[in-house]
Design brief:
The complex is a heterotrimer of chains A (338), B (235) and C (299).
Chain A (H helix, E strand, L loop, with lengths): L2 H22 L6 H26 L7 H19 L3 H23 L4 H20 L4 H4 L5 E2 L14 E3 L2 E3 L1 H25 L1 H11 L1 H6 L4 H27 L1 E2 L6 H14 L6 H16 L8 H16 L3 H17 L4
Chain B lengths: L4 E10 L2 E11 L4 E5 L6 H9 L3 E8 L2 E2 L5 H6 L2 E4 L11 H8 L7 H11 L16 H14 L4 E5 L7 H18 L2 E5 L3 H7 L2 E6 L2 E7 H6 L1 H8 L2
Parallel strand pairs in B: 3-8, 3-9, 6-7, 7-8
Antiparallel strand pairs in B: 1-2, 1-4, 4-5, 9-10
Helix pairs in contact in B: 3-5, 4-5
Chain C lengths: L1 H31 L6 H17 L4 H24 L7 H23 L16 E4 L2 E4 H23 L1 H11 L1 H6 L4 H26 L8 H15 L4 H25 L7 H15 L14
Antiparallel strand pairs in C: 1-2
Helix pairs in contact in C: 1-5, 1-8, 1-9, 1-10, 2-3, 2-4, 2-8, 2-9, 3-8, 5-6, 6-8, 9-10, 9-11
The chains are: A mainly alpha (338), B alpha/beta (235), C mainly alpha (299).
């Protein structure tokens, strides 16, 4: 990879990191705002993961909400049933979801585009019912919500103010910081992954499996790996979501979630990392904005759908691609070949 | 007499790459014309340009009508039948269905057209319900030709009919094409790698090189001219 | 024994609804190579239109026919306007597009008609009388639905196998370039496929609303999954397969729920996961389904 590309890639990640730090230092707002901001971080992480599997290796997944559910429930069960500290459950959730992703990735190898979309869509739709299955009640508590800290009020044990580096912040604020800190770490990990050999292999697989195979890339391994990684990301996102709202129930992870994530990823620009911020912002704040058009139900969905269609038709490379093109004249002057 | 098909300074591009840099050629009524040249010379692209399968600039006219930027459907409607490289048959459909598709633009009288075509390819009747993809290479090529004939075209565009086929089969195909030309006055523009065969079967020929016409003239002359043969035709 | 027969009969009833939506999915797949994720939402939307027409005084059958026409035109328009720009491109793009349609139409249905519960047809529920055949109740409405669905399959079979138009539609999907060269207007064949599918979907939607009330924006969501399972089981390109698949799924789900009381796997609310299991199993074991032709995928 030329030094120019490397420098450019590094610059965008740097810019994105700066943006995230800015999010960190944003002025205080109320509890609800904290949670919404944290949710945006959750979406950001999930979209990053989805981008790796769909944008980079071209495997369509309409089921990433299910991996979020797995991660979220892992956290919920560990905290509520086994008293594990919520922070430690995050990496565990990632691992569990990642393992699930690996297990899904193996049969996925045999399914091409359309069929994979069908199968993962089925997974997303079936997940809430699976979580409510009476047979799994001992693990998932059937259809009932698992309260993280024993009560559904946002007060009491577990919700008290947290002390970070000597400063006291409210629980919700702490969640907000936590989410974006994890987001930053995961972004850097993704960037390192994608600019290295795995990333090149991913892109090769997406562009031409035949060519990749004949140049010695172990397609099966990389495709499954991509699935596992992206599922892990989704799992961590799910875990953070559960921590943010302090409960987990099947309705938190409906089929629509998987579709919404896809919308976010497409808007971001498949195959792009930093577009994920725009994608996450879009899906998080659209319902709030849609209320201004009409208080009727269904408006946010109509807008999501219309946006998705318009982006696919008019701006296929998403926000990231569009901005890249707009800024191209600028950035090409900033760098000189060395 | 005005030529049946005329190309004037036709350029064609695939995306950003220009494949034809200004081709001019013509085919008269009832003529068999060959287009020769090495790989990548633009022979197939020329036929695709006529059929409207690739974006072109310049003029293409057929029987006095401009078809320069017409869609393939319109070109078929006007009386040109194109047998593309790789035959272009419907492998998943039966032989009979392929022929019915060939007659798509004809109104009524399928039986009559079918009888005619069967005259040239009698074996088709036995294989009516066989899936086209399971035919041998030679049979597929003949099916493709039969399908083109179902439309009763005025002109046939043949792209590399000999590709991948045994010499005996190739000779039979060219024999049939010759017969069609003599008996029905079918004009033919044939693209071929097998230069000697093409020159024997045609009255005129064009030799393409890198997207341009390098040479043109009566086939007999080109075949006899040793330096031409060595330089352009490889034998 | 009577119980078993009753369960089979009611399974056939729900199965024919799944089959009719599966038919729509198969039509689009057969004529364009695309699986339309929005098929269910489109059906819901058009059913709401039918409801509105009847609500405004139109006779049932007139509204039915008019809705089919509207659905057909709508399907053609959708294909020409939304899908055409990305035709021939990667699968992923079209899939995402249909998902966008799924979300959009669902939102529109909710917005325009709200989640208010309605019956279809409004104010005049269909005859719920039933025949008694040896102790088994066979509802006239269910019988009617099954008959119409079978009729649709026969009609489609005749169209595809025995008409020039049907042949052209199939050809356009199999080999667009060769089709063009014989004069087939490929673009319009694709649009026709979408129009047909939309009309059939409208029928499926109206069946669902009548047989499995109420009419509400989310009503086709589970049906879509069952229809996918039916289509996959039958073979995505086979109308006959869609019927067989649909009826099979309907009966199977019913029997599983009934006999679950013996096995205690609590499967009565697990219909969707079971459908998913069917989809996965078929795709992994025999992707061509029962009636499809296996496609070799070489890498």
């Amino acid at each position: 990879m030329s030094r120019l590309t490397l420098a450019r890639g590094g610059a965008t990640v740097l810019a994105l990191s700066v943006a995230i730090v800015a999010i960190f230092l944003a002025p205080r707002w109320d509890q609800v705002g904290d949670i919404k901001g944290a949710q945006m971080g959750v979406y950001f992480i999930a979209i990053l993961g989805l981008n790796i599997v769909t944008g980079y290796t071209g495997q369509i997944s309409l089921g990433h909400g299910a991996f979020m559910a797995i991660g979220g429930y892992t956290t919920a069960i560990l905290v509520a049933e086994h008293g594990v500290r919520d922070l430690w459950t995050i990496p565990i959730a990632g691992l569990v979801a990642g393992a699930a992703g690996f297990l899904v990735g193996i049969p996925a190898l045999r399914l091409s585009g359309l069929y994979l979309a069908l199968a993962t869509f089925g997974l997303a739709v079936a997940m809430p019912d699976l979580l409510s299955w009476d047979k799994l009640e001992s693990v998932t508590k059937g259809g009932q919500a698992i309260q993280l800290f024993g009560s559904s009020d946002l007060t009491g044990k577990g919700f008290e103010d947290v002390s970070i580096l000597g400063q006291t912040v409210t629980f919700t604020r702490a969640v907000y910081y936590l989410t974006w800190a994890v987001a930053l770490v995961l972004l850097v990990v993704a960037w390192l992954l994608l600019r290295g050999p795995p990333g090149r292999a991913f892109r090769a697989v997406r562009d031409s499996e035949v060519a990749a195979a004949s140049s010695g890339v172990n397609i099966a391994a990389y495709k499954t790996f991509a699935f596992a990684i992206s599922a892990a990301y989704a799992g961590i996102a799910g875990s953070l979501l559960v921590i943010a709202v302090a409960f987990a129930d099947p309705q938190s992870f409906p089929a629509k979630l998987s579709l919404t994530l896809l919308v976010g990823a497409v808007i971001a620009g498949l195959g792009s990392l930093w577009g994920a911020l725009a994608g996450a912002a879009f899906i998080q704040f659209l319902p709030d904005a849609a209320v201004h058009i009409s208080k009727a139900q269904g408006v946010p969905d109509a807008v999501y759908g219309a946006a998705l269609i318009l982006i696919v038709l008019l701006l296929p490379t998403g926000v990231a691609g569009g901005l890249r093109r707009a800024l191209a004249p600028l950035t090409s002057r900033l760098y000189t070949r060395s | 007499m005005a030529p049946l098909l005329e190309l004037a300074d036709v350029k064609a591009r695939y995306g950003q790459v220009e494949a034809l840099h200004g081709i001019s050629l013509s085919v008269g009524e009832g003529e068999v014309v060959a287009v020769l040249g090495g790989n990548g010379a633009g022979k197939t692209t020329t036929l695709r340009a006529i059929s409207g399968l690739v974006s072109t600039s310049g003029d293409v006219s057929f029987a006095g009508t401009r078809i320069s930027r017409a869609s393939p459907e319109k070109v078929a409607r006007i009386g040109i039948a194109h047998v593309p490289e790789g035959r272009g048959i419907f492998s998943e459909l039966t032989v009979h269905e392929n022929l019915r598709l060939g007659a798509y633009l004809r109104r009524g009288g399928f039986a009559g057209d079918y009888e005619r075509v069967r005259g040239y390819f009698p074996w088709l009747e036995d294989r009516r319900d066989q899936q086209a993809g399971t035919l041998s290479g030679g049979e597929q090529q003949m099916l493709a030709l039969a399908r083109a004939l179902m439309a009763r075209p005025r002109m046939l565009l043949l792209d590399e009919p000999s590709l991948g086929l045994a010499p005996l089969v190739v000779r039979e195909i060219f024999r049939i094409v010759g017969e069609l030309n003599e008996k029905d006055g079918l004009a033919v523009l044939v693209v071929e790698q097998n230069a000697s065969l093409a020159l024997r079967s045609s009255s005129r020929a064009y030799v393409l090189e890198v997207g341009r016409v390098a040479l043109e003239g009566p086939s007999a002359e080109l075949a006899e001219n040793e330096s031409v043969r060595k330089a352009y035709l490889g034998y | 024994m009577v119980e078993f027969a009753q369960q089979v009969v009611s399974g056939l009833a729900s199965g024919s609804i799944y089959a009719s939506l599966a038919l729509a999915i198969v039509i689009i797949y057969r004529s364009t190579g695309v699986v339309n994720f929005a098929q269910g939402e489109l059906a819901t939307f058009t059913t709401f239109i039918a409801w509105t027409l009847i609500d405004h005084g139109l006779g049932y059958w007139l509204a039915f026919a008019l809705t089919l026409v509207i659905a057909f035109v709508g399907g053609v328009a959708l294909e020409r306007i939304v899908v055409r720009p990305v035709e021939g491109g990667p699968v992923l793009t079209v899939v995402i597009l249909t998902i966008g349609l799924f979300i959009l139409l669902g939102g529109l249905s909710n917005w325009i008609w709200t989640a208010e519960v309605r019956s279809f047809p409004p104010n005049r529920p269909f005859p719920t009388s039933a025949w008694d055949i040896g102790g088994v109740a066979v509802s006239k409405q269910d019988a009617g639905i099954l008959l119409v669905t079978l009729g649709l399959v026969v009609g489609l079979y005749l169209l595809f196998q025995h008409t020039k138009l049907g042949l052209a539609i199939r050809a356009a999907a199999l080999n667009p370039t060769a089709s063009r060269l014989v004069g087939v207007r490929v673009g319009w064949m694709l649009a026709l496929g979408w129009g047909l599918a939309a009309a059939i979907g409208a029928v499926a939607g109206m069946f669902t609303a009548a047989a499995a009330p109420p009419l509400e924006p989310n009503m086709m969501r589970p049906v879509l999954i069952y229809a996918f399972a039916a289509a996959v089981l039958g073979g995505l390109a086979s109308p006959v397969g869609a019927i067989v698949g649909g009826l099979t799924i309907g009966v199977m789900l019913n029997l599983i729920a009934t006999y679950d009381t013996h096995v205690h796997l609590e499967l009565d609310r697990m219909r969707l996961p079971i459908a998913l299991a069917v989809i996965l199993t078929v795709l992994l074991v025999r992707p061509a389904g029962l009636f499809g032709r296996a496609v070799v995928r070489r890498v």
